[in-house]
Design brief:
The complex is a heterodimer of chains A (306) and B (493). With 306 residues, chain A is an alpha/beta fold. Helix content of chain A is 40%, strand content 15%. Chain A is built from nine helices and nine strands. Chain A starts with a strand and ends in a 15-residue tail after the last helix. Chain B has helices at residues 16-27, 42-50, 74-96, 106-112, 125-137, 151-164, 201-213, 236-246, 263-275, 302-309, 339-351, 383-386, 400-408, 429-440, 461-470, 479-489; strands spanning 3-9, 32-39, 65-71, 118-121, 141-144, 168-169, 175-178, 181-184, 191-198, 218-223, 253-258, 279-284, 296-299, 331-336, 356-358, 366-367, 375-379, 412-420, 446-452, 474-476. Chain B has a seven-stranded mixed beta sheet with strand order 8-7-10-9-11-12-13, sandwiched between helices. In chain B, strand 4, helix 5 (125-137) and strand 5 form a beta-alpha-beta unit. Chain B is globular. The chains are: A alpha/beta (306), B alpha/beta (493). Chains A and B meet through strand 2, helix 3, helix 6 and helix 8 of A and helix 1, strand 2, helix 2, helix 3 and helix 5 of B.
């Protein structure tokens, strides 16, 4: 019998009702379960907290997910998930995870954090994926296919974000080219999706859910044909301002200008997929850098909270 | 003329790291021009199509996995797709293995192997203590491969083992050769009369391989865990093992390797050696401040330890001469998979009065934070780099980015690397490094490496050295020699 250690805020919504589903994907340390409206991830503690993650209490036995196969039925009933022959108990006392809050921050702390992130990520971000956007422009960019394909859409997205962030009266729509990021690049969750996820999460963290909602509304109709179901699950969570805990902690330390913590947090970002953590961080970086451009009189907005 | 072939795996989800590793392995196959494994999203169709990686008429959806290969001819393309299929099946095969065929508990393992006298524990650190205790109570010596075992648990286990006449090797014990049987990461070395006891995995590997290459052999090589010689643990396992080796007729000389131990522990070990009938080499990497009895010789580097242990150290290979102008960059960047090898390099630099920084500094070295203008030795096998990722000895790609960064840094004149082979290590670390250097292109930095291993290892040391030399890497016979060579290339030392 397995026991839940923690459960993400979006996963708990699904688990709290009686539903039937199926195992959709099996990995060494986790499985994705398709519960109809929502996919959730059931994993061991090394997978880390996240909005759609249900983490198991540690057990001394390896291969907890061994023997499970795709399309095996899953039933959720009265706080118990039946995964094949395994029973997973979710007690009412199980910790419900939600993203950590950003502490006090200022434009100065954000600038300090971004400078540190820019310096540290140089030589640290993987060559593949879009982490190169944390420090590179033009010729400095990696020669990977995805980085080259993203230069223009990222530039347009950044310009649009800038206009939206500094001008409350701006009515400009999301540039068409931003859709080119959907499903683009390597990885189980393509780099372009992770990048967009980082953009959405960062917008939420700087209290511009209005812009995040506009962007997601523009992307949403194209996601079904544009990318896979695991990516769609994470993008939906990002539109609610939620991503993996390690990513939140890294972004928070940048916003707070906590330069001592940034290297450690980046080590943890390294562990998210092959490049997914860095891709998402690059998306967040684009938003946060745009936040530095402040028109006079906007310092009391959520962008410069104090 | 190039041939492009594709396979679509509908609804197959593989971990991103696995996708990347397979992609890299396919690209490295002789005759393959390009290869990719990507989710078949419309955006990826475009970039794969631009790269000439899409076969005409192929269909797939955004939730499918596309395997794409462009090769010199049809046969290579087809065999590469076949290889991709095999690699993708690997995790599934592991999952499909009926677990009933393996013992699930120590008790059932003991029933299957009633003569076993050692249990190797490799479970998450939180549980290693409980499993080790069960093994001890079943009369088994214990090798704990797991890390993150709390100190109090280690002390308690070692005391219990001592009372039972057993030993606990570890925690975080990565290497052992018991009576000729290699356990975990170990090299193929001849049997001989030199025993090694060490608080360090790669330290044991380097010394055992240097001894083997000097024509001598090993009776036993026993890891005791990096904390065994601290005041808290009080060398419980080290003293037990030394006592066993004292009575072992196959052992005539004992090499003890450790970071500088606690003073009280030093006194106990020195007292044991004084009463011993055997000769000793004591290698305390980073410390020469220790009084030992006459039957022991103190060294501060692994190379010196190996030289002191063998009867004829002339069997050691010569260090290649520096045949190039001094490098433009002023600093050396060491990027190590082995912690003790990184420590040894620091000792060499400090012996030349060169300030050096490290994430795992030896006495006299500084702690590396973010400053780049200095000699820097990084242990990439440290927990902070390996949590949730493979160790660089298993997946050398873990240090690709740091190597790229060092080679692109105008302040860096020499990049210093270790290549550790043997059981458990990557199948071709030199080939991986050569490919990386080729992709990076021209750099003003000289790349210097040593290969810890023997020609009898699965990867064959001579072959690894040859691959590195063809890639323009200066290969030194030992890790200490590599550090000396780096200083020489910068006109220091």
């Amino acid at each position: 019998m397995l026991r839940a250690q923690s459960i993400g805020a979006l996963a708990v919504r699904e688990i709290s009702q009686s539903v039937a589903g199926r195992i959709a994907a099996v990995f060494d340390r986790s499985v994705y379960v398709d519960l109809g409206c929502q996919w959730i991830c059931i994993g061991d503690a090394t997978v880390g907290n996240g909005p759609v993650n249900l983490l198991l209490e540690p057990t001394p036995h390896s291969g907890v997910f061994g023997g499970l196969v795709v399309d095996q039925p899953v039933q959720v009933c009265a706080g118990t998930v039946h995964l094949g022959k395994r029973r997973l108990i979710i007690e009412t006392a199980t910790k419900v995870w939600s993203p950590p809050l950003v502490s006090d921050w200022t434009i100065e702390s954000l600038k300090r954090g971004l400078d540190a992130l820019n310096a540290i990520s140089r030589g640290r971000a993987p060559r593949q994926g879009l982490g190169v956007f944390l420090y590179g422009r033009g010729s400095e960019l990696s020669d990977t296919r995805e980085a080259c394909a993203c230069v223009f859409p990222v530039f347009q997205l950044e310009s649009w974000l800038l206009n939206r962030l500094v001008d409350m009266r701006c009515v400009e729509g999301v540039p068409e080219s931003v859709q080119q990021l959907i499903g683009l690049g390597p990885g189980l969750t393509p780099s372009g999706d992770d990048f967009l996820g980082g953009v959405l999460i960062a917008l939420s963290l700087v209290h511009r859910q209005d812009i995040a909602a506009l962007l997601y509304a523009d992307l949403c109709p194209r996601l079904l044909a544009g990318t896979g179901p695991i990516s769609r699950t994470h993008l939906a969570a990002a539109s609610a301002g939620q991503g993996l805990e390690t990513l939140h902690l890294a972004i928070n330390s940048v916003i707070e200008g906590n330069v001592e913590m940034i290297p450690t947090r980046l080590h943890h970002v390294d562990q998210i997929g092959s490049s997914s953590g860095w891709d998402a961080l690059a998306g967040a970086y684009v938003v946060l850098r745009a936040c530095l451009v402040q028109p006079a009189g906007l310092h009391k907005s959520p962008l410069g909270s104090n | 003329m190039s041939v492009t072939v594709n396979t679509v795996r509908a609804g197959v989800f593989l971990d991103s790291v696995v996708l990347m590793q397979i992609s890299r392995e396919l690209t490295a196959i002789q005759g393959v021009e390009d290869a990719a494994l990507m989710m078949a999203t419309p955006a990826n169709w475009d970039i794969l199509s631009d790269a000439g990686l899409v076969e005409e008429g192929i269909m797939a959806g955004p939730g499918d996995l596309l395997v794409a290969v462009r090769a010199q001819d049809r046969a290579i393309a087809d065999s590469t797709l076949q290889r991709a299929a095999e690699l993708m099946e690997r995790p599934a095969q592991r999952n499909d293995t009926p677990q009933e065929l393996r013992p699930l508990t120590l008790r059932s393992a003991c029933r299957q192997l009633p003569d076993a006298n050692l249990a190797l524990i490799s479970v998450p650190g939180d549980f290693a203590g409980a499993e080790a205790r069960k093994a001890l109570r079943a009369g088994l010596n214990v090798m704990i491969f797991s890390d993150n075992v709390p100190l109090a648990e280690e002390i308690s286990l070692k005391r219990e083992a001592h009372d039972l006449g057993l030993v606990v090797m570890g925690p975080d014990c990565g290497t052992a050769i018991i009576d000729g049987v290699p356990l975990a990461f170990a090299n193929v070395v001849p049997r001989g009369d030199i025993a090694i006891v060490g608080a360090s995995g790669t330290g044991i590997q380097e010394v055992s391989c240097l001894i083997a290459r000097a024509g001598e052999g090993i009776s036993h090589a026993i890891g005791v865990g990096s904390r065994d010689l601290t005041e808290a643990v009080d060398a419980i396992s080290t003293l037990t093992v030394l006592d066993w080796l004292e009575r072992d007729v196959a052992t005539h000389h004992i090499v003890l390797i450790s970071k500088p131990p606690a003073r009280s522990v030093v006194d106990r070990i020195a007292e044991f050696i004084r009463r011993s009938s055997k000769s000793y080499t004591v290698c305390l990497v980073g410390s020469d401040n220790l009084e030992l009895p006459d039957n022991a010789k103190l060294t501060t580097t692994l190379k010196d330890a190996a030289a002191a242990a063998v009867k004829n150290s002339e069997g050691f290979e010569a260090v290649p001469a520096v045949q190039r102008a001094p490098a433009a960059g002023r600093y050396v960047r060491g990027l190590y998979s082995g912690g003790t090898l990184a420590a040894e390099a620091q000792v060499v630099f400090l012996s030349h009065r060169q300030p050096v920084l490290s994430n795992a500094p030896v006495p006299g070295a500084g702690l590396f934070t973010s400053e780049r203008t200095n000699h820097i030795m990084i242990d990439l096998g440290d927990d902070q780099f390996t949590r949730g990722r493979p160790h660089p000895m298993i997946d050398p790609a873990v240090r690709d980015e740091p190597i790229h960064a060092a080679l692109s840094d105008p302040d860096v004149g020499a990049v210093l690397l270790d290549v550790v082979i043997g059981f458990g290590a990557h199948a071709d670390p030199a080939g991986h490094l050569a490919g990386l250097l080729d992709r990076h292109g021209r750099s003003d930095s000289v790349v210097i490496a040593s290969v810890t291993g023997t020609d009898e290892d699965p990867q064959v040391r001579a072959r690894q050295v040859s691959v590195l030399e063809r890639a323009g890497v200066m290969v030194a016979p030992s890790n200490a020699d590599a550090a000396e060579l780096a200083l020489a290339c910068l006109n220091i030392g």
